[in-house]
Write a structure and sequence with these properties.
Layout: E1 17-26, E2 29-39, E3 44-48, H1 55-62, E4 70-75, E5 78-79, H2 84-89, E6 91-94, H3 106-116, H4 121-134, H5 150-162, E7 168-172, H6 180-192, E8 199-204, H7 207-210, E9 215-220, E10 223-228, H8 230-236, H9 242-250, H10 252-258
Parallel strand pairs: 3-8, 3-9, 6-7, 7-8
Antiparallel strand pairs: 1-2, 1-4, 4-5, 9-10
Helix pairs in contact: 5-6, 8-9
Bound molecules: adenosine-5'-diphosphate.
Adenosine-5'-diphosphate (ADP) is lined by residues 26, 29, 31, 49, 51-57.
């Protein structure tokens, strides 16, 4: 049962994932400053921020690795601090670094995940076969993960993140290290999940990956600077493209201009 809360503030009642005034510091460094955001079922939300914005810190809080210093995080109504098991059962995660066992087969990696979530026997086989079929990986099921390309390894991680049928998928810069075609494929696969009602939070520093999101949350120096559909953000700051709007908001232009030119070689 979702717990009642006195501090939901303006969180929409149908939010499946919400952060309300979340703060997190590392010693003196404030990595997240009163961050609030909410995601509804079927929404693809891009968390767009330059390096150091606080994206990974937010993912560490959302995956229960650390607790926020203050503020509330809820998944499907469960407070992640008070009911971590229920909250985390509703989350699927693709981390920035691969967490597959390279020497196990694709299938064995997925079976292991099913067992961790208490899914066994025929149900496990059915879900794994369906996921591999959907992603075009069925013929590779018995190969060691090591034999797969980077793009296909990411697809296995995407399949794994969905096996326990989570309400929310968290993807932390999942295209890092992939070639452009594999990036595009992965983004398309995840965008397609919306039709099934999945909510997705996709962290990235690449504006082009945010262009097709339902909403873009711009995070900079630990603060949410903007939250809205890409077109609305662009118009609100009077820029021609989302890339220009992002650079304008985060001071990227100014930083780039202030950097010294590269030394002659
Ligand atoms: P991003 O993922 O957007 O690059 P991070 O969440 O990694 O941002 O970092 C946010 C800020 O917190 C940065 O200033 C970073 O230097 C700092 N930071 C991150 N992790 C630690 C840590 N373990 N100890 C101290 N500072 C950290």
């Amino acid at each position: 049962m979702p717990e009642p809360s006195a501090d939901l503030g303006s969180v929409p009642p149908d939010a499946i994932l919400s952060l309300a005034k979340v703060c997190k510091s590392y010693g003196e460094r404030e990595a997240l400053k009163e961050v609030s955001l909410a995601i509804r079922p079927g929404e693809f939300v891009a968390l767009l921020g330059p390096n150091g914005a606080g994206k990974s810190t937010m993912f560490q809080l959302l995956t229960g690795l650390f607790n926020a210093d203050t503020g509330t995080i809820r998944v499907c109504g469960h407070d992640i601090r008070r009911s971590p098991v229920a909250a985390l059962a509703s989350i699927g995660v693709v981390f920035q670094q691969t967490t597959l066992d390279m020497d196990l087969s694709v299938e064995a990696n997925l079976v292991f995940h099913c067992r961790l979530h208490g899914i066994g026997g025929r149900e496990s086989s059915r879900r794994i076969a369906a996921a591999l079929e959907r992603l075009g990986l069925a013929p590779r099921a018995h190969e060691p993960v090591r034999a797969l390309s980077g793009g296909n390894r990411r697809k296995v991680e995407l399949a794994r993140a969905q096996l326990h049928q989570p309400a929310v998928l968290l993807m932390d810069e999942p295209t890092v290290g992939l070639d452009p075609a594999s990036r595009r494929q992965l983004l398309d696969e995840v965008l397609a999940l919306r039709s099934g009602g999945a909510a997705v939070l996709w962290a990235t520093h690449l504006v082009e990956e945010a262009e097709e999101a339902d909403r873009v949350v711009v995070l900079h120096a630990g603060k949410v600077l903007a939250d809205g559909p890409p077109e609305a953000l662009r118009r609100a700051v009077g820029r021609a493209t989302l890339a220009e709007a992002f650079l304008g908001m985060t001071g990227g232009r100014e930083r780039a201009a202030a950097e010294p030119p590269p030394a002659p070689t």
